[in-house]
Amino acid sequence: MPSIRDIDLDHVAVAVERQSDAWPRYAGDLSGRWMAGGETEGFASAQVRYANGMCLEVLEPRAVERNDFLRRFLDHSGPGPHHLTFKVGDLGAALAASEAAGLSPVGIDLRDPDWKEAFLHPKQAHGVVVQLAQASGAWTSPPPEGIPLPRTEQPASLDFVAHAVASIRSARSFFADLLGGVETAEGEDSLGRWVELAWPGPGRIRLVEAIAPEVLAGRPGRVHHLGFTVEEPHEIGDTGPVGEDGGEVWQVAPEHNLGTRLVLRPPRHTG
């Protein structure tokens, strides 16, 4: 399979009805630092950055009469994980590699020289929307009024996106062979066997071959949770112990976090 060159996992995006509802968790509890926000046809988007440099984007529907894709997503699936964004050096070459792999990119938009984008449909991307984007520079803007203060001076670290799949072997051919992820770790937990893929930046995807059928409910894959390292995770609201690693792993269930499950681990202190 052809590989996309000069590619990096930039951020994970979650969809909500109102961005302001998400900031107490992502900017307050997890101490994410504001990066930028803005609005375009159909949605508003904003990002926070965590200690390891990984970013999380929050999407809110706006002006849906001009573009209703996010409105349709929320009406069909409810709030929760929406897409993964990979930055590429040459979108044209990335599209060619995708097509050579038998995929059919959609939503191709090359009009803006500062931001060119295309998407791979969840049916072809193992259950998640994948955005391929070519950007000419960094995105910054002032924070909105009323964004919560961080809980601690040290932001949490967004360590990985746990993506449950029916088959690691099949998913690896997409995320590793086409999208350029490099396998850096493997293991097994209560969800199933997993392998972790890395890109040049801080972005990591943990592919988990789900044991329980209800995790996927007949789908080829889905983002199961976001894995964070955070000081004193038990002090974050709505958490409960998972029962792994000697009781040190805590979880915020999707119903307590606008549809997105969080798994929180404390830092591992040595010495």
What does this structure look like?
With 271 residues, the chain is α+β, with helices and mostly antiparallel strands. It folds into two domains: 7-135, Roll (2,3-Dihydroxybiphenyl 1,2-Dioxygenase, domain 1); 157-265, 2,3-Dihydroxybiphenyl 1,2-Dioxygenase, domain 1, CATH 3.10.180. Helix content is 17%, strand content 40%. It is built from five helices and 16 strands. It has helices at residues 19-29, 69-77, 91-100, 168-178, 213-216; strands at 7-15, 33-40, 43-49, 55-61, 80-88, 106-112, 115-120, 129-135, 157-165, 182-188, 192-198, 204-210, 221-229, 239-241, 250-252, 262-265. The strands form two sheets. An eight-stranded mixed beta sheet has the order 2-3-4-1-5-8-7-6. Strands 10-11-12-9-13-16-15-14 form an eight-stranded mixed beta sheet. It is globular. The N and C termini lie far apart (44 Å). The model has no long low-confidence stretch (mean pLDDT 94).
Question: Class by helix and strand content?
Answer: alpha+beta
Low-confidence stretches: none
The DSSP helix count reads 5
Choose one word for the global shape: globular
CATH topology of the largest domain: 2,3-Dihydroxybiphenyl 1,2-Dioxygenase, domain 1
What is the top-level CATH class of the largest domain? Alpha Beta
Record field, number of beta strands: 16
Series of secondary-structure elements, N-terminal to C-terminal: EHEEEHEHEEEEHEEEHEEEE
